[in-house]
Amino acid sequence: MKTYSPSNSHKSSVVCLLCEKHTEALFDEKRKRAYYYCSSCSLYFKDPKAYQSFVKQKERYDLHENNQESEGYRNYFQRFLDFLSLSSLEGVDLALDFGCGRSRLLASMMKEEGVICDSYDPIYAPFEYEKKRYDLIVSTEVFEHLHHPKESFVSLLGALREGGYLAIQTAFHPQTKEAFFSWYYTEDTTHIVFFSIKSFEVLALAYGCKVIRTNGKNMILLQKRGNEEILCP
Ligand SMILES: [Zn+2]
Q: CA end-to-end span of the chain, whole Å?
């Protein structure tokens, strides 16, 4: 039995949050949730009408257990740092952890590897990161929460120096719609945007970056091109 149905047989009037192309409206029959799917950049997103208020989101985030002493939590970030391989990146001295929540663990683990890392979070650690220029911006389990993912991506690129790196962890969605509608990652009510590698490739092409590497599952490393590279790709 199908777990989802197209809301109508035509393209929806909602445009993609990333590439602004037309999307397909879909409905999750089991959980009674509306989604949109963009085939141009392979992005799913929940119906923006269902997005939660700032207060509601904070209530949910306050429940997140971020015990810095926990070995599991350290191992979790270590997997991300292993993927990142800081020593393989050129000229990385100053980094930003975008969407750190209440934790400073990733920043302190990066410091152990010789990289100074600021921590930014719109709720728990706000400051004007846009005014600084970073060599590297990392963002783990944040992009799936973004109400305006394209604008956030552009803002992060603005805070990166030319040739700087952007490393993102967010689970890439399954390939088929059937699998998407039974995917655990959609269960969290604060998860609203679901990316694929293609979504990031489309963003990279549109905004002057290149994909350096991905683990094919939930991590991707991009690099902001220099001005010369943009003029002569
Ligand atoms: Zn799109």
A: 48
- 33, 97, 99: which is closest to 64 by C-alpha? 99
Specify the 3-state DSSP secondary structure of 188. coil
pLDDT of 9: 46
Cα(209) to ligand 1 centroid in Å equals 17
Question: What are the Cα distances from residue 42, in Å, to 37, 151, 199?
Answer: 7, 18, 6
Distance (angstroms) between ligand 1 centre and the Cα of 68 equals 37
| Statement: residue 142 has pLDDT above 60 | yes
How many angstroms is it from 125 CA to the middle of ligand 1?
30
Does residue 213 surpass a pLDDT of 70? yes
Q: How far is it, in rounded angstroms, from Cα 111 to Cα 6?
A: 48
Distances (CA, A) of 216 to 41, 83, 171, 211, 230: 16, 11, 9, 12, 26
Q: Where are the domains of the chain?
A: 54-231
Residue 91 CA to ligand 1 center (angstroms) comes to 33
Q: Are 100 and 119 in contact (CB under 8 A)?
A: yes
54-231: CATH homologous superfamily? Vaccinia Virus protein VP39 (3.40.50.150)
